[in-house]
Amino acid sequence: MSEMISNMTPSTTTTLLKPSEEALIVFLQTEWQDVHHSRIQEWSALGVVTGTHFAMVQLPSMLEKLKLEGGDWSAVVMIGCAVSFIMAVLGMLITCRHRNLMEVKLSRIFEAERQLGLVKSDTNPMGILNAEDKMLSASKARGLSLPRPLSTSGMIFSFYLVLVLFDVMCLLFAMKGGKS
């Protein structure tokens, strides 16, 4: 790489500029806003999926009140369970994707804090943040990260897991024709 740089002519070289303190502060604010916005999206998605599940639970009693011909509603309940199941799985995937996004954002935030001189090091003993505070990466697969169990994302993921298990039980019950 150094050979490449030394072989460049002055017209093809670029000057690397260090971001200003103001630019880093604006960058930090924007990154934190993105982190908070993604968390709001996670909770909103969980609310929508949970609402879908509440509606699905009410579906059999609503259909019974209609007293329409052909009183076997197991197919309708199975479709409702399948839709709820799909929504819960999509919610889990959103949570994992946002966990990955958070890892990326927090890594960038840490680097900006380091450039601002906030991170303690051998060369900067006056920093207020420890280098060990940097977020460690979790297991990743295709832009998805499983949340840590004792985190907000982990709790949201657990709620989705409960909803998925509920959907599987409902599907099995509906497939039996609603008979225990």
Describe what you observe in this structure:
This protein has 180 residues and is mainly α. The chain has one domain (50-175). It has four helices and two strands, in the order αααββα. It has helices at residues 2-7, 21-66, 74-115, 152-175, and strands spanning 140-141, 144-145. It has a two-stranded antiparallel sheet. A hairpin with a 2-residue loop joins strand 1 and strand 2 (144-145). The radius of gyration is 25 Å and the shape is elongated. The N and C termini lie far apart (71 Å). The model is unreliable at 1-8 (pLDDT under 50).
Radius of gyration: 25 Å
- Quaternary status of these chains? single chain
Strand order of the largest sheet: 1-2
> Helical residue percent?
55-70%
Shape by Cα distribution: elongated
Number of strands: 2
**Beta fraction:** under 5%
- Which blocks of ≥5 consecutive residues have pLDDT under 50? 1-8
Average pLDDT confidence is 82
- How many distinct domains? 1
Report the structural category: mainly alpha
N- and C-termini, Cα separation: 71 Å
Tally of DSSP helical segments:
4
State the order of secondary-structure elements, H for helix, E for strand. HHHEEH
Largest sheet entry: 2 strands, antiparallel
